[in-house]
Amino acid sequence: MTTDTPFAILRTSVRTFARLARGRILLLPPLMLVAGLFEGVGIILFLPVLEQLTVGMGGAGHAPSVFGGMLTALRLTTLPRLLIVIAVVFLVKFSVTVLQQIAIQRITRDLYRSLARRLMHGWTSSEYREFYLQTTTGSLTNVLTRELWTFLSAFSYACLLLVSIVYIAVYLAGSFLLDPRITGIAVVFGIAAMVGLRHWVGLAGVHSIQFSGENVRFQDQLIEFLQHFKYLKATARFPMMEQRLRTIIERMTHSQYRMGVVGATMAALPEPFAILVLIALLYGSVVLIGNPFATTAVLALLLYRTLMRILVLQSSWQKFVGCSGSLRTVQDALTAAAAHPEPRGAVRVETVAREICFEDVHFSYGDRPALAGVSLRFPARRTVALVGPSGGGKSTIVDILTGVLIPSAGRVAIDETDYRVLDRDSLRAMVGYVAQEIVMFNDTVAQNIAFWSATNDTDLRRRARDASCDFIDRLPGQFSEPVGDRGIALSVGQRQRIAIARELFRDPQILIFDEATSALDSESEEIIRQHIERLSGKRTIVLIAHRLSTIRRADYVYVIDGGRVVEEGTFDVLAGNTASKFHSMCALQTLSTQ
Which of 129, 226, 229, 440 is the right S-S partner for 487, CB 3.0 to 4.6 Å? Predict the structure, then answer.
């Protein structure tokens, strides 16, 4: 938002609500107006009722000239008819109010669905480098779990603001017809009260923005606290982490406390002010002006309703401004989600017929070069291994291969089709990726393998067997056994084997193994290696490995160091060259070069 002033926030937010809710929001003002008019008419109809009661009790009886002709024309001159009409009017008002609330709830529901879809689609459609690497997990979860609901609360408060304005206008119109002077004085007092509260409203907005910022930082730290719980416990580093959390909690709760104090003050001030103003106006109407009882009674009811609505207006305004931090956060999140869309080419691919090739590819993370002039070939249905020291650029090559990262220079092509014109999702649909960081979902073993797709027990067991997941039959629930958050109920090796089974279940054309057997024992590693060898010639396989025993049967090996290809060739040729870096790597692992 361009400015933090409350009215600018309201103006921007109303435009946002109208744009997101589209034409549905146009239904609300007519419903609010109809409900307000019926309530105003219902209250004013009490005036002839009170007139008739006053006459019946021996009062002076001042028939209201403003309404007399209309009531006579409608034949509403008897008390029973008047009471029936009042009952009908308020029943209609009740029905319209219910419809109004249903409409608000439906719009609120649909707004959340629409916003959540837009955010998630924007996140998944954004460039990995420009979006995901520049944000934090806490900020993303905070938007969907807190800020978005607070944003929708602001919509509800904005609706209450509009309702209050409509009702206040109707009440003042009715009271103006009864006594313009008293009504004018009441308006002056009301405006003075709203002006006097502007400072407090501004404070509420400032503290709301501060609270939203601190809450994002708290979410970030809390996620790290839970993700690294085992490490923190094992190394006795909880005190330092707790101190960081306590500092953020203190700042966050201080902002919340100041919001509460401002809110409580604003909620408490208007009521005594309203009562004093009402007493003064009633005294002026009866004693100074000399209005009759019926007129004074209805005028008092209208002014009382007006003052109560002003209280609701003030409270809704304060709460709306209290949501200003979330209004800005959601607006910024929507802008960020749409700011860096991933380029979408029109050319779809369904197979790798010849090869995927890198030609003089460069890539940098900010000012830090990751790849410098890398040229590679991944022939179809061949196994290519990438080896070298950590940080050499192997994972970056894989990220470019899958289209997650975009080279800053150079060319990547599949069967001579440049990645820049490629529909990358069609490429990724052919990819199975066993990542170095094991990916597990908080569900059953079966769902982690099948990834929630329709399947049968035979397919599950076959893919589990291919990935050496014999341990599944020993689990209490077997394939229905929950794996826990991030697979915490399983060992690291068991998690890695299930991750491999998931990619094999997909039956992809391109299989990427990024240190896929690093957590396995020797027997399981050998089983997986034999299965990879059986896939050779049938799938395009990319192996990233530090344990060189897993790549012995690779068709071609690239040694990556410092973002460059320093050596390439077959395993036997590189290992047999005593002057090569690869030979030294084999020697360090006491791996036979024969």
Answer: 440
* Long-range pairs for 460-464: beta carbons < 8 A, 24 or more residues apart: 460/505, 463/501, 463/502, 463/504, 463/505, 464/498, 464/501
Domain 355-588: what homologous superfamily? P-loop containing nucleotide triphosphate hydrolases (3.40.50.300)
Cα–Cα distance, 462 to 535 (Å, whole number): 15
Is the alpha carbon torsion for 573, 578, 579, 581 positive or negative? positive
- What does residue 576 show for φ and ψ, rounded to 5 degrees? -80, -10
Tokens of 222: 């809390």
Give me the architecture of the 18-197+269-338 domain, per CATH: Up-down Bundle (1.20)
The structure's pTM equals 0.68
How, if at all, do strands 510-514 and 431-434 pair? parallel
Both tokens of 501, joined, read: 């089974």
Mean residue pLDDT of the chain comes to: 79
- The SS3 assignment for 341 reads strand
Q: In whole angstroms, what is the distance from residue 223 CA to residue 219 CA?
A: 6
Domain with CATH 3.40.50.300 in the chain: 355-588
CB 298 within 8 A of CB 48: no
Listed range (267-281, 319-333, 391-405, 408-422) with the worst mean pLDDT: 267-281
Q: Quick one: DSSP state of residue 5?
A: -
Check: CB of residue 480 under 8 Å from CB of residue 453: no
CA dist 481 and 486 (Å) reads 14
- pLDDT exceeding 70 applies to what percent of the chain? 86
Q: Where in the chain is the domain with CATH 1.20.1560.10?
A: 18-197+269-338
Separation in Å, CA 273 to CA 239, 270, 306: 51, 5, 13
With b for 16 or more beta-carbon neighbours within 10 A and e for fewer, the 256-284 pattern comes to bebbeebbeebeebbeebbeebbeebbee
